[in-house]
Specification:
The chain is an all-alpha fold and 383 residues long. The protein is built from 16 helices and three strands. Strand 1 and strand 2 form a beta hairpin. The structure holds coenzyme A (COA). Coenzyme A (COA) binds next to helix 15.
Length: 383
């Protein structure tokens, strides 16, 4: 008899620490999220995405000079190589923007070899290139899929404004520019989620950063990870008007169906990011030129019913509940919600990669084998 080693398998590794990390912190009971110890609300009020990205990757807020030089570096690397754009032109228009993003990130690795990941300079240059180029890839992919020519970055604009400009060929007004920056800040890191774990696992093999980010993008593309905000929009569209919200949601709850954008594995109160986005949704929809303004009213009515019926189960709106509403309000097409999430999260993935390499040990978990032993080979003709 072969000796069996019996071990308890924890599905999804829930509650198992996969690494020591000093990057972000969540207290799910109190609704706290911090990056490097700074509350997310303070960053959303005062920081920019590039400053937050620097904080995550390098561990401290940059000095004036450090921020200026990081911003300049990023700005000077936003353009895509002509050959990469040509390859993108040949990709199928029906492909999902997440697939474009994953494929093009992988392709970038062939143009910018970064195999010596233990070299600090190689790491820093890859951090800059990846953060700088993902918005250009998302915007170019969106335009190409709709038969339009990609727009080159305008280096006189901020990171957030430049993304909007490359998408829509016009500059955003200050509120929209700020909203894009805040959305990027809010999605930049979220401790040990699936795509971050994936970037640490791939990073632990000393694979190059383009491979790491393309794996993380692939992980994020699954509907159980990115993507719930798209479903919130479909739900709000289906509800149609504020008056229909109560009956629709009560019926779903009675049928034990899940409400999209509600509930979280870690947060047992309202997600702090949802609170910030709801505030921006009000600023946006108070304006006369607001698009899709009725969505906010429907969303808030849904939240009211969810609070009445589900707060006993500690189910509250998560970030996706309001991010879709805000995205729609600034005119972002639904299929770009998850790519923008990836564009933001890349700084978190890279921060975890850099941290992983400091004390690296290749990930090699074990398993609990439940298969057979000592089976005889049966010849093909006898099966
Ligand atoms: C995020 C999510 C997967 C977390 O799930 P979880 O912590 O594993 O919670 P469970 O699925 O075990 O659910 C616990 C209970 O709450 C209920 N519940 C969880 N999310 C719910 C939701 N969105 N709507 C209604 N009920 C919900 C479950 O039915 C279950 O009820 P029961 O105890 O009566 O069976 C889950 O809340 C969900 O699917 N939410 C909707 C999708 C979403 O918004 N995802 C984005 C997350 S950022």
């Amino acid at each position: 008899m072969v000796e069996e080693r019996h071990m308890d398998v924890v599905p999804g590794l829930e509650g198992i620490p996969a690494a020591e990390s000093a990057i972000s912190y969540i207290d799910g009971e109190k609704g706290i999220l911090e990056y490097r110890g700074i509350p997310i609300g303070e960053l959303a009020d005062n920081s920019s995405y590039l400053e937050t990205a620097y904080l995550l990757v390098f561990g401290n807020l940059p000095s004036k000079d450090e921020l200026a030089s990081f911003t300049e570096d990023i700005t000077l690397h936003t353009r895509l190589k002509l050959k990469i754009l040509r390859m993108m032109e040949l990709m199928p228009e029906a492909g999902h923007p997440m697939d474009y993003m994953q494929a093009v990130t992988s392709l970038m690795g062939m143009y910018y070899p970064a195999r010596d990941t233990l070299d600090e300079k190689v790491r820093a240059a890859s951090v800059v290139r990846l953060i700088a180029k993902l918005p250009t890839i998302v915007a170019a992919c969106h335009r190409l899929r709709h038969g339009d020519a990609p727009i080159a970055p305008d280096n006189s604009l901020s990171f957030a404004a430049n993304f909007y400009y490359m998408l829509f060929e016009k500059k955003p007004d200050p509120l929209i520019e700020r909203i894009i920056d805040v959305i990027l800040i809010l999605h930049a890191d979220h401790e040990m989620n699936a795509s971050t774990f994936s970037s640490r696992v791939v990073g632990s093999t000393l694979a190059d950063p383009y491979t790491i980010v393309s794996s993380a993008i692939g992980t994020l593309s699954g509907p159980l990870h990115g993507g719930a905000n798209e479903h919130v929009i479909y739900m709000l569209d289906k509800i149609g008007c504020r008056e229909n919200a109560r009956a629709y949601i009560e019926d779903k709850i009675d049928k034990k169906e899940k409400i999209m954008g509600v509930g979280h594995r870690v947060y047992k109160t309202k997600d702090p990011r949802a609170i910030i986005l709801q505030g921006y949704a009000h600023k946006l929809f108070d304006r006369k030129d607001a698009k899709n303004a009725e969505m906010l009213g429907i969303a808030e009515e849904v939240e009211k019913v969810v609070e009445e019926r589900l707060s006993a189960k500690k189910l509250y709106p998560n970030v996706d509940f309001y991010s879709g509403v805000v995205f729609k309000g600034i005119g972002i097409p639904t299929e770009l919600f998850t790519p923008i999430f990836a564009m933001a999260r890349v700084s978190g993935w890279l921060a975890h990669w850099v941290e992983q390499l400091k004390t690296n040990r290749i990930y090699r978990p074990t398993q609990s084998y439940i298969g057979k032993h000592r089976q005889s080979y049966v010849a093909l003709e006898d099966r």
